[in-house]
Amino acid sequence: MNKAMETILKYRGRCVSQDDIATIKKVIDSFPGSSRRYISQELCRIWDWRQPNGFLKDMVCRSLLLLLESRGFIELPPRKCTPNNPLANRRKPEKAGENRRRRNAFGMQAVRYIRLTGSSSKNLP
Q1: Residue 8 in contact with residue 21, Cβ under 8 Å?
Q2: In sequence order, what are the beta bridge partners of 9?
Q3: Which helix (H) or strand (E) holds 8?
Q4: How far lies 30's CA from each of 33, 34, 36, 43, 65, in Å?
Q5: Are 21 and 36 in contact (CB under 8 A)?
Q6: Which residues are within 8 A (CB) of 39 and not within 5 positions of it... i.e. 6 or more apart?
Q7: pLDDT band, residue 17 (cuts 50/70/90)
């Protein structure tokens, strides 16, 4: 088997070879200053790597690029932005019994019980 065609790793059904690594490096070098997203989309177009609905597999490609970078095969350009992740920045839940009486934004204790009463349609205009 040709050394360039030898599979380095298999990722989500795609066998990655030395030729693929060379293609990735060429795309990164050809588009300096481009985002990782653009690079992954360009690779998907080159490889015709698509979902069954025809859309590019650019998210899968980006995670492949991150894996290849973590293993030392490629060097990606720096991130242009880090999207806000509300799950990563959330408050830890309170333990049972802690801070049962919290004050709201107006300095009042939170209302624990509300009494609802019915109304008659006769009173409506």
Answers
A1: yes
A2: 16
A3: strand 7-11
A4: 10, 9, 13, 12, 16
A5: no
A6: 27, 28, 31, 65, 76, 77
A7: very high
